Amino acid sequence: MTDNTHRFTMGQRLVLALVPRMVWALLWIVGLTWRFEVIAEEGVTPVVFGQKAGPEIYCFWHQCVLPCTLYFRRSGAVILISRSFDGELITRILRMFGFDAVRGSSSRGAREGLLGLKNVIETGRTAIFTADGPRGPIYETKMGPIKLAQATGAPIGAFHLQPEGAWTMKSWDRFLIPKPFTRIIVSWAQWTHVPANTPTDQFETLRQQLNEAIERARLRALAHLGQLAS
């Protein structure tokens, strides 16, 4: 792993040295108490816990990063993460759970990030997008997954993980921290396919299609739990 700590202040370096292991240990212990329940739209075959993922693209909303980290920890997937300090912190935590990272985002290093994920797909691994990350707006998919799918032929899986009990942070993404011993619904919607010959003027239509699929997965999970959408 390349050491990028020279870009950060001494205080940030101290945080990077200590916090990832603390978060990993706490998340691992609490995560062992979570109970996952999988649901899916008709005709959709969901990816289940422990299944090794193939050359596919997964998309979900930024708010459910924590339960996704536990659920997909054995998938060998690679996630696109920003080059910021927060991104560096998240990268170090995710690597402890068996993930890898490509650095870039919709705002910085976008081209390099997509090229890195293209290589991930071509080597038979799964690429993951927090579709509305890293800064939102909430529940609005970026164009990156569509471009990557068109370049690689990989299908895009849309899903959401909704805890029955969670603390909701007052952040742009309404970040979810599942409570111990809670049930978490893993909700899958229809996959999105982008043929290689898709013209760029159809990208926006496909982006909206993907956006609607992730939202359906979220709303279906909330309805399954008897919770109101927010």
Automatic annotation (TrEMBL):
Keyword entries, A-Z: Acyltransferase, Membrane, Transferase, Transmembrane, Transmembrane helix
Superkingdom of origin: Bacteria
Record carries keyword Acyltransferase: yes
DUF374 domain sequence ranges: 71-137
InterPro entries associated with the record: DUF374
Gene Ontology terms for molecular function: acyltransferase activity
Parts of the chain that traverse the membrane: 14-34
Keyword Transmembrane in record: yes
A Pfam family the protein falls into: DUF374
Identification of the protein by name: Lysophospholipid acyltransferase family protein
